[in-house]
Amino acid sequence: MKRISPVLLVCCILFSTNIFAQNISRDGKLLRGEKWQRFQPTEKADFYVATNGNDNWSGTLPDPNSDNTDGPFASLNRAQKAVRELKEVVYSPKDAPIEKRWIGSPHELGKGRDILVLVRNGFYSLQEPLIFKPEDGGERIETNLPTGAFEYHKLKDNYVTYAAYPGEKPVISGGVPVTNWKKKGDIWIAQYDADTAAMLIVNGKKQVLARTPNMGYFVPPAISEKTDELYFNPSEVKNWTEMDHNRVIMLLRWHTGINSIIKVDEKSGVVSLRSPQEGVVIVPPRYYIENVKALLDSAGEWYFDKVRNELSYIPSKEVDSPNDILTSVPVINQLVEVKGTLEKPVRNLRFYGLTFEGVTTGNSAISFSFAHACELVASEVRSCNGAGVKINPGCYQPRILDNHFETIEQGVIHCVGAGNPCDGREIIRETQISYNKIYDCGGINIYAAHTLMTTISHNYITKTRGRYAIDVGGWSNQEEAVDGGYLVEYNHLDDVQKDADDSGAIKTAGLTFNSIVRKNLIHNVHAGFFNDNVGFWFDNMSSGWTTEENIFYNLEQGEMKLCAALIEDNVYRNNFNIESPVSAPEIIIEGDPVFEESNLKVLAASQTSSGKIVAGSVITISADVFNSGSTGIAPVQLYVDGKIYEEKFLPVVTNNSQKVEFEVRIYDEGEHYFAVGATPYKTIQVEGEKPAVVYTNLNCSTNRILNGELIEVNALAVNLTSEPQKMLSSLYLNNSKEKSITVHLNGGESREVKFEIQPKPGEYTLRIENSAVQNISVLEAKEVDISKEKIYQYCSAKAKPYKIEADKKNNRFKITAGGSDFFHAEDSYAAAYVKGIKGDFVATVKINEFGNRTHEWFRSGLFVRNDISKSFDVQPGSKGSVLVFATPGRAGIEYDEFANGCMHKASSENLPENSETPIYLKIVRHGNSFSGYISLDGENWIVERHTTNIPGIAETVDLGLAAGGPDKNQYWVEFTDWKIEIGK
Q1: Are residues 751 and 795 in the same domain?
Q2: Using DSSP, how many helices (H) and how many strands (E) does the chain show?
Q3: Is 324 domain-assigned?
């Protein structure tokens, strides 16, 4: 007999295990040694549920038998009862251990199996939620299989699964079917005997409650000073009949206001609201009116007449009659509740391939509490006025995978635990929310806070109507809070933030650890109306988050912002805002990029007459990179002389090309060859002496200034030798030496070389030794005589009442104003200003004094705007806004980054503690960009901020002194020594 080697024996065992896994249907899952697998559809089940079933039958047949004496159950409740009864039969206690040193587990059961309920096609209307308790789920059993240590046995999870019958799509609904529709003109009428109708669902689609305007929003022509009034434009609002149950839906800053009209004055254009509405006098509300019968005028709209108990509906043109389709009205606020306890969770309960629809507000369609290894997979949740899925405290390894969510109004998937749980069993751990597709949903689409090891990956989210697509972290947490281990990756967010304001497509908040947001694709992010919407947002108290390798494009506003968070406390790296791709990205992002490089080009800045490249000159190497794999970011290598010289991360959407470019300097004479990735090499010839030191990365603080202003110039000096170097480094203007400093460099060392110059008016080329060259312009300056200028005054609607004392002769200006905020669209300010400031200028002023106990965010300073008299009251104001400001404790700059009439971009910092007035401000225009400076002594500028080029800025602007409050209270500030110099 041949002896079998141990290696061969192991191989045989592994092979047999694989055959077993592939050919024998799984029953349960070993806790260790087996990976999770999704349920595989099968027609063989323990119980069946069908609309033609009977709860008095056995439920063990998929169809009624020939004599109609047995068949499937009719209800899910009956199936639930049958599962409990079967569990009593198939589960039994574990055997006593043979090994006396056995330790074992606390699980009492030793035998069991999976139980399957298949639900046939049809509409299942629930009158009350299905509640699943611990006795309804699967169980964890302790087998007799050894673990390899005599003290333990292997644990195994068995499941209870409710799944759609293969190829069928059963609908579990909280709606009551509506029948017997009758046509009256273009409107269909049906009797509905109830006190209310929260929603009408037609073939699974939520219909539109009668409204005006039919699409979009109205904007009031003016802001009322009363919080229970709303102005309207002629013909927008009328004194319609039967308005008792009308609703006014208002999009306000950070929230949606829901109110109703009690009176319409068509002559004055004012409606009176039932109750005061927070926010209407701070920001201009966009609004629409609904639930008025007279507004029923478009296909897809409906109305419920409470007096007549009638539903009215206008179907789409392709529908001959609502009687031919399924219409229903939801009557409950939850469909499924999986509810365990601290001591006994619901285990291993699965829902596969089912459709859930139609719940009213106040709850979620599906919820899990104290549920372990429960799953919602390959299902659909749609048309819900409440939330979609809620994962509550006490859940362990919940899986929400590969589902379709549509028209969910109050958040789609929310996973929120206790910030400081009293018992470890309350903690939500190891949640997986992946491969879901979310369409046209309101609220926060995916939200997770106060959880551990939550994965949100490979989801597709589009057409959001809430403030965030993905929101992770609890911003009010403390150091000891449970909030960490988030992994947010490979999500695809498209066409998001349409009605949002002051938001990010993905947002983080709070203190965390081991939390990563990476490899997500975010595009088509809509602009905010009041505040800015960005691709990514570090919000309140964000600390410990790493955000990397994300791709953005088609952002109407910014890429990233911070609020009450510091970039120093987080990591933001290798994220890219790219041009819109030619080919659209895939829906679900899965896998890695696969790059194919081509079209290698080598261009040199300096060449000899023979075509050779001068040693040390800049060489640009470029190539086209095509991505045949998944959308993502991957490194591209530049090879010089056969070795990797440099590597760049390149973001490329699938089936698109992008150009990559490198810059190098070759100092050694002779033949050199280049390649990018897999391109063929290209060869060049270099000649000339190798310099000992080269100067790279030349940078000027500005390229155009007024006479008397400073320019800061710096470059990086690099020692190319292994020997110490001592040299005179000089700054050249028009090839004439302007300034020199002595620089010491050790072998191979790099060091910044910096100069400050104040050149006379003229045009210059500028370089530091052998660096590249930049051009600068210095303009003659002419001082404006403030005492002879007409001083205009203006106050925005939100900053009133106000008072401006303008003493031109003594150059003293005192501004008293209130307001809600001198930022974003609130635009609360009063200003004293001059007109006609053309071209480049420098303006300075001294804040002489603030009033007693002035608010720390009473922004006061030098204000530039195309037209200061056009503030953002109910519509976007004048473009081209820049404010260099100080408050009693803070200073910085803010500006209209996106040319949409309000100042979204801000950069400021605290002044030194216990700083006092005077505070000196300076603003400098150079082309279409600005610089701001703040000083406490008028000589040393301790704060310096710069804008980008501002789109929409006019050549001739208004320039003035302005101030605005943040809290509706009045404060005052006194300015003196206002000075303006204009470039000739």
Answers
A1: no
A2: 2, 89
A3: no
CB-count burial class (<10 Å; 0-12, 13-18, 19+) for 925: buried
Among the listed residues 666, 662, 685, 665, the one whose alpha carbon sits nearest the alpha carbon of residue 600: 662
The count of domains in the chain is 5
* 299 and 198 housed in the same domain: yes
Q: Which residue, among 591, 652, 589, 628, has the nearest Cα to 437 in the 3D structure?
A: 589
Query: Are residues 954 and 878 part of one domain?
Result: yes
805 in a domain, yes or no?
A: yes
If asked whether residues 469 and 544 sit together in one domain, one would say yes
Q: CA–CA separation, 75 vs 126, rounded Å?
A: 9
Identify the CA nearest to 874 among candidates 796, 821, 969: 796
Task: Enter the DSSP assignment of 691.
Answer: P
Sign of CA dihedral 708, 710, 711, 713: positive
Q: Are residues 775 and 786 in the same domain?
A: no
Q: Which of 280, 297, 319 is the last residue of a domain?
A: 319
Q: Is the distance from CB of 373 to CB of 350 less than 8 angstroms?
A: no
CB 660, CB 676: distance < 8 Å? yes
Which pLDDT band holds residue 278 (cuts at 50, 70, 90)? confident
> What's the gap between Cα 108 and its chain centre?
46
**Is 141 a member of any domain?**
no
Residues 744 and 831 occupy one common structural domain: no
Interior CA angle at 777 toward 774 and 782, to 5°?
160
| Helix (H) or strand (E) run with residue 83 in it | helix 76-90
Residue 26 inside a domain? The answer is: no
- At residue 87, φ and ψ (nearest 5 deg) are -60, -35
CATH number of the domain that 873 lies in?
A: 2.60.120.200
Shared domain for 771 and 788, answered yes or no, is no
Q: pLDDT per residue over 85-104, tens digit each?
A: 999 999 999 998 888 888 88
Total residues belonging to the chain: 984
Among the candidates 625, 657, 687, a domain finishes at 687
pTM: 0.91
Both 620 and 753 in a single domain? Answer: no
Q: Residue for token digits 């996106």? A: 898
Indicate if the pLDDT at residue 363 is higher than 90: yes
Q: What is the CA radius of gyration of the chain?
A: 35
Domain, as residue range, for 465: 329-556
Handedness of CA 950, 955, 959, 963 (dihedral sign): negative
Q: Alpha-carbon dihedral of residues 795, 801, 803, 804, nearest 10 degrees?
A: -10
Distance CA 133, CA 84 (A): 10
Q: With the CA atoms of 569, 574, 577 and 583 taken in that order, what torsion angle do they form, in degrees rounded to the nearest 10?
A: -140
**What whole-number distance in Å separates Cα of residue 295 and Cα of residue 247?**
12
What Cα–Cα distance (Å) separates residue 570 from each residue in 457, 520, 945?
21, 18, 22
**Count of Cβ atoms closer than 10 Å to residue 215 Cβ:** 8
Exposure of 87 by Cβ count < 10 A (0-12 exposed, 13-18 middle, 19+ buried)? buried
Rounded to the nearest angstrom, the gap between the alpha carbon of residue 553 and the centroid of all alpha carbons in its chain is 13
How far is the C-alpha of 665 from the C-alpha of 655, rounded, in Å? 33
The CATH number for 734's domain is: 2.60.40.10
Q: What is the pLDDT of residues 227-248, one digit of tens each?
A: 999 999 999 999 999 999 999 9
Q: What is the pLDDT of residues 500-535, one digit of tens each?
A: 989 999 999 999 999 999 999 999 999 988 888 999
